[in-house]
């Protein structure tokens, strides 16, 4: 009853009889953007599985193609239209051989530019935002019936997580790492950012649903879970006891799941880094000592203009408190150079913050005006050549820090979770607690285990090492 009221299609609830098993159809999903889009693409596959859709590797063998898009920086829409041009040819070629193809555009560009997509690319059948993909089966049915395009970019009253089928993606054998979305949306409205408009208001999944999904993942072999959210440490889910749980409390509960040896979370906001979460880093060995905590800028003036709600010293203070309880904690961050109003002095403050903190990894971007955001309409836009020069200087410093961090691991013994065969025969590969790929010589049957490795060399984007106590594993 509730399901129907919420507009969830009958197909999702009324497929019990084996006789109704639909024919198998090919589904090809192209994913751009952040890890949440990767998670969403897998969940769209779950939603479409009862209709007979199974993943295929190429668009020309697909009965349905989903383009899951990202709107975070410039030329996002143009990139979508150029990809759609390519997919149109695939659709036409399939049509001449009597096959039909549904083209769907999902994700953040779909949310922001849905009408424009249908106007410019009339061969698109479905446009859907990130909060409506639980309704995909209904949209597929409507597209087939009506023969016209279907657009679903409202923010529905119901929560999609209440209507998604159980995830099947982690059931793939050998999948040792997985993403798990626990929080979505954002109410922070940083001056430069489209996310509050494309993902909607901040919303947390209930604790029981997160724990159940984590348990299923671990039962299927997952050992390393990354909890996802646009502001993941603002998590405030309803607990089984009726209380509101923060991320720290959720982490303690997840740490009780036997076999879950690594827990990560991303992306956190400095404003939500509370004492309880810092204490969890002290108490829980499963919480990996690697934290993505974007600061964006080291200038208080620019942080204020960005509406970030903290100062550069607040950030230094959080990092100090985290390292006090977890001395091996390494940090990664995002930076934006050339936000409107950024002077040479402001940029130097960013460089100084980088020198003070020391990052193991960082992503840095030139400010890109996003339509509809406050910063896009602000005066004092920074010239492109100045942005270029600042980005180059910042990236050089960040690269040096990344290399220096990797170099500190040489000679140390670190736990490596082995996830796959290595590049060369006789090698296996895994990842360190800090996410660097690590290669060693070793037998394939060790894949799936977490073992101590002595790091012997730093390669360009990975580390090489040897298994400790080698004779035990030979
Ligand atoms: N919720 C996260 C960030 C999500 S967006 C946070 O608050 O930190 C990922 C990154 O893209 C941001 O951290 C920012 O560095 C970058 N970004 C977002 N909007 C941008 C814009 N308009 N121009 C350039 N970079 C941008
Ligand atoms: Fe965007 Fe700011 Fe929200 Fe992060 S906190 S998603 S940067 S508005
Ligand atoms: Fe991009 Fe949307 Fe993620 S804009 S970064 S796909 S939240």
From TrEMBL:
- NCBIfam families registered for this protein in UniProt: miaB-methiolase, MiaB/RimO family radical SAM methylthiotransferase
The record lists [4Fe-4S] cluster 1 as bound by: 34, 70, 108
Q: Which organism is it from?
A: Acetobacter vaccinii
* Protein's job: Catalyzes the methylthiolation of N6-(dimethylallyl)adenosine (i(6)A), leading to the formation of 2-methylthio-N6-(dimethylallyl)adenosine (ms(2)i(6)A) at position 37 in tRNAs that read codons beginning with uridine.
Domain TRAM residues, every copy? 407-469
* UniProt keyword annotation of Amino-acid biosynthesis present: no
- Which superkingdom? Bacteria
User: Where is this protein primarily located?
Assistant: cytoplasm
- List the record's Gene Ontology CC terms alphabetically: cytosol
Spell out the subunit comment.
Monomer.
The record's top EC class is transferase
What positions does the domain Radical SAM core occupy?
172-404
User: Which HAMAP family does the record cross-reference, listed alphabetically?
Assistant: tRNA_metthiotr_MiaB
**In the record, what lineage is assigned to the organism producing the protein?**
Bacteria, Pseudomonadati, Pseudomonadota, Alphaproteobacteria, Acetobacterales
What are its E.C. numbers? 2.8.4.3
Write the protein's name: tRNA-2-methylthio-N(6)-dimethylallyladenosine synthase
User: What binding details are noted for the cofactor?
Assistant: Binds 2 [4Fe-4S] clusters. One cluster is coordinated with 3 cysteines and an exchangeable S-adenosyl-L-methionine.
Q: Which Gene3D superfamilies match?
A: Methylthiotransferase, N-terminal domain, tm_1862 like domain
């Amino acid at each position: 009853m509730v399901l129907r009221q919420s507009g969830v299609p009958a197909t999702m609830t009324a497929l019990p009889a084996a006789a109704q098993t639909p024919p198998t159809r090919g589904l090809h999903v192209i994913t751009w953007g952040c890890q949440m889009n990767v998670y969403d693409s897998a969940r769209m596959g779950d939603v479409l599985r009862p209709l007979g859709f199974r993943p295929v590797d190429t668009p020309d063998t697909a009965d349905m193609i989903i383009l899951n898009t990202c709107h975070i920086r410039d030329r996002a829409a143009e990139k979508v239209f150029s990809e759609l041009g390519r997919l149109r040819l695939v659709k036409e070629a399939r049509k001449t051989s009597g096959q039909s193809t549904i083209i769907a555009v999902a994700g953040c560009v779909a949310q922001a530019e849905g009408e424009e997509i249908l106007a410019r690319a009339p061969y698109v059948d479905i446009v859907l935002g990130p909060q409506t993909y639980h309704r995909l089966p209904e949209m597929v049915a409507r597209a087939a019936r009506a023969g016209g395009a279907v657009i679903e970019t409202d923010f529905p009253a119901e929560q999609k997580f209440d209507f998604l089928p159980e995830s099947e993606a982690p059931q793939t054998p050998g999948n040792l790492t997985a993403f798990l979305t626990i929080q979505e949306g954002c109410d922070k409205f940083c001056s430069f950012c489209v996310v509050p408009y494309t993902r909607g208001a901040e919303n947390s999944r209930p604790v029981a649903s997160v724990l159940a999904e984590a348990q299923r993942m671990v039962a299927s072999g997952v050992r390393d879970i990354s909890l996802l959210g646009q502001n993941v440490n603002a998590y405030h889910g309803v607990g089984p006891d009726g209380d509101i749980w923060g991320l720290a409390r959720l982490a303690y509960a997840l740490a009780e799941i036997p076999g879950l040896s690594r827990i990560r979370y991303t992306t956190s906001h400095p404003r939500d880094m509370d004492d309880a979460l810092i204490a969890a880093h002290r108490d829980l060995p499963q919480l990996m000592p690697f934290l993505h905590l974007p600061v964006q800028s080291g200038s208080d003036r620019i942080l204020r203009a960005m509406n970030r709600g903290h100062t550069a010293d607040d950030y230094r203070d959080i990092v100090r408190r985290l390292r006090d309880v977890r001395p091996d904690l390494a940090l990664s961050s995002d930076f934006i150079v050339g936000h409107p109003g950024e002077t040479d002095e402001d940029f130097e403050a960013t460089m100084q913050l980088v020198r003070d903190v020391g990052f193991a990894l960082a992503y840095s971007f030139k400010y890109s005006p996003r339509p509809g955001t406050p910063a896009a309409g602000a005066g004092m836009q920074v010239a492109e050549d100045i942005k270029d020069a600042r980005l180059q200087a910042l990236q050089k410093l960040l690269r040096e820090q990344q290399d220096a961090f990797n170099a500190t691991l040489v000679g140390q013994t670190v736990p490596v979770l082995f996830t796959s065969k290595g590049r060369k025969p006789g090698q296996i590969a895994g990842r360190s607690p800090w996410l660097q790929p690590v290669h060693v010589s070793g037998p394939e049957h060790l894949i799936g285990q977490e073992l101590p490795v002595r790091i012997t060399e730093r390669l360009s984007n990975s580390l090489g090492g040897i298994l400790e106590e080698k004779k035990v594993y030979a």
